[in-house]
Design brief:
The chain is built from 20 helices and six strands. The relative contact order is 0.11.
Length: 510
């Protein structure tokens, strides 16, 4: 937090850090706010702060403000920093990670260079460290999504030929397959991965060199600093660089939207696993029981997954509402409090994907129940109307009316879909002024369960071959996306290695 926001107390740890106040944080403020924040930053942001200090050393060297020996001495101390050593120093540095890292170095140097940390602010330093953390978490989230998507893809591939009812308005509608359904899950995952690439582009803009809000007074090479930190470009406007946390808003928004879709997918699994359906099963080690009703086998893991997707929506609401109605500048409210729930959002997404992936890996389809459910419903009504139009020349709307009337009459007579009544269909056609057709053949074809899948012809349909074609495209898409995310991770590792090489070479120590 900015120094002038730290209330005075009798503690003396502000001595040597500022002339504006005479005492450090009150014990309550330290316990409630500063120390928990510091623990998080030591665990999550310390590597980024060290990397940032190294980039600053190269800039001071380039500007002629530090010599090679000074850069080398500070670099050696930075390489010795550990979480424990920083925690030991924090008590006398206002529990602030930037001050603590500075004090760690200065206490161990024989002589502190006068120009070290000249023209510097914690605002852009903090914004950049947080962004580097977010960037790493995005890489991990993309990997988790890829693993989950490929799990759904494998499940779709082995179930493209199984027939099951598809539902609209909670009513049986058409014959589909689990493979068709889970290809939709894959499509959703690929969509989210594509959108996360946009979030990562946002995270590719470096705030370093923006200063407190209005830029800096030395000729910092912001493009060079950005490249050394693995960023692809610079967030050019200094105020926007430190006032906004776009990456957090965008990441949580994408997680929220994905959570909505995953919740709906899980709801279908919960329905399919219910006793009235019995389409799916999970092994005992992924199931639960009732303490009172010994006959029950429950699937509480599905309830857990669906409930956890709600936390993803809550995370976006948290980060967005905590920023609104704040002044457009750097503030603790935006930089720290608004982002407090962001790490948990990443954690929750990972948990949801791991649990849901495990469910899909262990899911067993009860093919007989699914097939019997299809056979017990008149799911071929749409096909029958099409056949009446395409084979018998009945106008489409009239064909719809005739097909609907046939289903109603057949149900009233107690006929199963597999028991075609050609005379009934001919009579209904006659009522509309049309002559007899090969009614039994049309009804048999229309109401066939395997035929319900085979009747579909369009790309992206439930036809097994269409599903397999789509899955082949999706496999290629997953491979291409995985390669792009691997390249991003490699680029960060290369930038970090290049930074260390420069510090060890003519630009740095020598």
């Amino acid at each position: 937090m900015p120094i002038d926001e730290v209330p005075a107390s009798r503690s003396g740890d502000a001595d040597g850090l500022t002339g504006r106040i005479a005492a450090g944080p009150d014990a309550l403020l330290r316990a409630e706010v500063l120390e928990p924040q510091l623990r998080f930053e030591i665990g999550a942001l310390l590597p980024a702060y060290i990397q940032l200090e190294k980039v600053l050393l190269l800039e001071y060297r380039r500007l002629g403000l530090l010599d090679g020996a000074q850069v080398g001495a500070i670099t050696a101390l930075l390489d010795q920093v550990t979480p424990d050593s920083i925690e030991e120093e924090a008590g006398e540095s206002m529990s602030d990670i930037a001050f603590t890292l500075e004090r760690y170095v200065t206490r161990r140097l024989g002589k502190v260079p006068s120009a070290w940390h000249v023209d510097r602010s914690r605002n852009d330093l903090q914004a950049t460290a947080q962004l580097m953390y977010g960037r790493a978490r995005l890489l991990d989230s993309a990997q988790a999504l890829l693993e989950f998507g490929r799990t759904a893809h494998r499940l779709a591939g082995r179930s493209a030929d199984l027939a099951m009812p598809g539902y609209t308005h909670m009513q049986p509608a058409q014959v589909i397959s689990p493979g068709f359904y889970f290809a939709g899950v894959c499509d959703q995952v690929l969509h989210t991965l594509e959108r996360l690439e946009s979030v990562y582009r946002t995270a590719g803009a470096s705030p370093m060199g923006a200063g407190a809000m209005a830029g800096q007074e030395l000729a910092w090479d912001r493009e060079r600093m950005a490249a050394l930190l693995g960023f692809t470009h610079v967030r050019k406007h200094a105020l926007r660089a430190v006032a906004q946390r776009d990456w957090a808003l965008e990441a949580c928004a994408e997680f929220s939207m994905l959570g909505v879709a995953l919740s709906r997918f899980v709801t279908d699994l919960m329905t399919w696993g219910g006793a009235g359906y019995g389409f799916i099963d999970l092994p005992d080690h992924w199931s639960g029981i009732s303490s009172a009703m010994p006959q029950k086998k429950n699937f509480p893991v599905l309830e857990r997954i669906r409930a956890r997707t709600a936390h993803l929506s809550a995370a976006y609401a948290d980060v967005s509402t905590a920023q609104r109605n704040t002044p457009y500048s750097n503030s603790v409210e935006v930089s720290k409090e608004a982002n407090a729930g962001v790490p948990a959002a990443f954690d929750t997404l990972g948990s949801v994907l791991r649990l849901f992936g495990a469910v899909l890996e262990n899911l067993d389809f009860r093919e007989d129940r699914m097939r019997d459910a299809c056979a017990g419903e008149y799911l071929g009504g749409f096909t029958l109307a099409n056949l009446l139009t395409l084979r018998a020349g009945v106008p489409w709307r009239t064909a719809q009316v005739v097909a609907g009337r046939y289903v109603v009459a057949a149900v009233e007579r107690g006929l199963a879909p597999a028991e075609p009544d050609g005379g009934l269909l001919d009579a209904l056609l006659a009522d509309e002024g049309y002559g007899p057709v090969d009614a039994v053949a049309l009804l048999t074809e229309a109401m066939s369960v395997p035929g319900g899948l085979a009747a579909k012809r369009s790309a992206g349909s439930a036809h097994p071959e269409a599903v397999r074609s789509l899955l082949a495209e999706q496999a290629s898409a997953f491979d291409a996306v995985a390669e792009r995310w691997r390249n991003r991770r490699t680029a960060l590792a290369s930038a970090a290695a290049d930074l260390d090489r420069r510090l060890a070479g003519p630009e740095g120590r020598r």
